[in-house]
Structure prediction request, 380 residues.
Amino acid sequence: MSQEDLLKLRIDPSAKSIHQIQHRKPYYRVAGIVLIVAVMGLLYLSGALTPAIHVEVASVTRTYPSQAIALLNASGYVVAQRKASVATKITGRLISLSVEEGSRVKKGEIIAHLEDEDVVALRNQAAANLNVARFNLRQAKAELHDAAVTFHREEILRAKGIATQAEYDSAMTRYKKAKAAVAGEKAAVKADAAALQVADVSVEYTLIRAPFDAVVLTKNADVGDIVTPIGAATNAKAAVVSIADMNSLQVEAEVSESNLELVKVGQPCEIQLDALPESRFHGEVHMIVPTADRSKATVMVKVRFIDIDRRILPEMSAKVAFLSRPLESEEQKPLTAINPDALVTRNGKDFVFLIKDGHVVQTPVTTGIQIGDMLEVLDG
Prediction:
């Protein structure tokens, strides 16, 4: 072997031995396992490896004790039982209107005024004619008095044989004519008085008055419009305003025929309006309309409000609970209630789990009475 071949067989001291390499392999494996375990632990603690738990969320509600004694629930609308479209009996131009939507009017109050120059002139003429008839009556009575005096004097003279029969007959004829003239003038006075009354009525027709205490719902005409009782003419108005008596508001609810036996006149009710969800109104059954709607198999029931509230308006949608008995004073306040399935009992104490900032917090509560399918919460 040459010197060159021997040089090639020399071992490089910088190279690692196979033994050294095999000796270090277990340390790499242990470090890798520790790293994997640490990562898995962090993932577990962060919840990434925890399986999702299905949670049903129940809401806390404000409920009323009346739900526990409600026999039947029905829906309907608030309707004014006393309402009117105020119009006039004559045709004329509207010259003034003193109300608008929401105005409160009293019975007899003037709502609007039509032009009245022509009817006022006729009334003045009728008044003048009546005055003339009264003066004529006074004149006729004076003539009657004079004729009566003359007739009685001629009667005395005739009895003494001084007056002739012709003079007596002439005095009697004049007396009878004077009596007839007075009767005619009295009839003329009555006729002219009736004519004046007609004229006064015509003038009154130009004043549109409220027929009862009410609130104006709609305004159908404006100043300058032609108002006519028929309303068939172009641009003519038949009604000036529509009014309703707010004290006559009732809920007209439709009750199924199969549940009608649960409803009786005078039965206590609780009314809830969609426009006022936080309020409950006391009512009672006023009337069961004696006819059915064959298309819907329902009967209309009218429920009156016991307490009048100005917030209640016609045509509001309403829900009516027909109660088995009147509510007690302590049952008229709303209660806080939850679904009984949301309650957890541990060591004799009741708890619920509240969701706060995305986390579940165990909270102790104090429960009360059962209200239908809900449970009252007194504290917590």
